[in-house]
Amino acid sequence: MSLEPRLTELEIKLSYAEDLIDALNKTVFRQQEQIDLLQQQLTLLHRQIRDSASNENRDLREEIPPHY
To answer: Which positions ≥6 away from 57 have C-beta within 8 Å?
Structure first.
């Protein structure tokens, strides 16, 4: 096999590898965005649970029912 076809084959393989790396980078970027969003939502839920837990110490007999 001469040098020219081997070089062409390597260039083609390199091109495919670059395309694959680009696609993988885009996938990792999208996944990181999703992870960041999920972390924000988890933090919000944690705060809501913490706040509702601190409100459970109230006396329900003192609250006015919603139909009044």
So the answer is: none
